[in-house]
Amino acid sequence: MSFVIWLTGPSGAGKTTLAKALEKELKGRGMKVEVLDGDEIRRTLYPDIGFSREAREMHNRVVIHMAKLLSRNGIVAVVSLISPYRSVRMKARGEIGRFVEVYLKCPLEVRIERDPKGLYAKALRGEIKGLTGYDGVYEEPENPEVVLESHRMSVEEEVREVLKKAEELGYLEV
Ligand SMILES: Nc1ncnc2c1ncn2[C@@H]1O[C@H](COP(=O)(O)OS(=O)(=O)O)[C@@H](OP(=O)(O)O)[C@H]1O
Ligand SMILES: Nc1ncnc2c1ncn2[C@@H]1O[C@H](COP(=O)(O)OP(=O)(O)O)[C@@H](O)[C@H]1O
């Protein structure tokens, strides 16, 4: 029985970057790790599904199921998924059990500056609508295991915080 690290936050908050760093660190410790990246899963399974509430909920349910299967077979699942709805993240927590919810918190101005995929530029020009954390809903976590202000810390510090919490919860040997 392994566990799930669930990275949530708007586009550009740092989920993908942190997921890769966690994967590297955990693999370095000899653990089996799989990163479940929302963007990648969309591209592979249903590239045209879109970003309506219904589509996001369906997609997020798929990811919950994948993470559950991996973790119960001894693989750490690192989920990198905007997952904007509190109810869906609660469902993930309930179904998975061994769950570390990590909220990547980062102000809009910084995300606009980072804009790794040019999405905020498009949203600012009015070319896309409903971008999460700009003009699309993001329901902030109320009681996540970890909150990381990614504009105030390094990726290495983020990794340390997450793994410290996983250790405290008894999911990870020190
Ligand atoms: N309207 C809108 N809102 C949010 N995100 C958008 C949108 N349009 C495209 N994208 C790109 O899709 C990525 C989000 O996919 P996710 O599967 O993580 O999101 S969700 O949980 O279904 O909300 C997201 O990836 P990240 O930037 O890595 O978060 C974006 O690149
Ligand atoms: N402390 C940090 N944590 C995560 N990302 C950071 C940090 N500082 C700067 N960044 C940069 O911010 C951007 C975040 O993009 P990304 O990881 O793709 O976010 P997301 O997957 O949430 O959309 C990257 O260009 C990354 O290098």
TrEMBL record:
One of its GO terms (molecular function) is adenylylsulfate kinase activity. InterPro entries: APS, APS_kinase_dom, P-loop_NTPase, Sulf_AdTrans/APS_kinase. ATP binds at G9, P10, S11, G12, A13, G14, K15, T16. This is Adenylyl-sulfate kinase. It holds the Pfam family APS_kinase. The gene is cysC. Catalyzes the synthesis of activated sulfate. It catalyses: adenosine 5'-phosphosulfate + ATP = 3'-phosphoadenylyl sulfate + ADP + H(+). It comes from the Archaea. Pathway: Sulfur metabolism; hydrogen sulfide biosynthesis; sulfite from sulfate: step 2/3. The lineage of its organism: Archaea, Methanobacteriati, Methanobacteriota, Archaeoglobi, Archaeoglobales. Belongs to the APS kinase family. The keyword Lipid metabolism does not apply. It comes from Geoglobus acetivorans. It is an enzyme of class 2 (transferase). Its EC number is 2.7.1.25. Keywords: ATP-binding, Kinase, Nucleotide-binding, Phosphoprotein, Transferase. Residues 2-148 form the APS kinase domain. The active site is at S83 (phosphoserine intermediate).
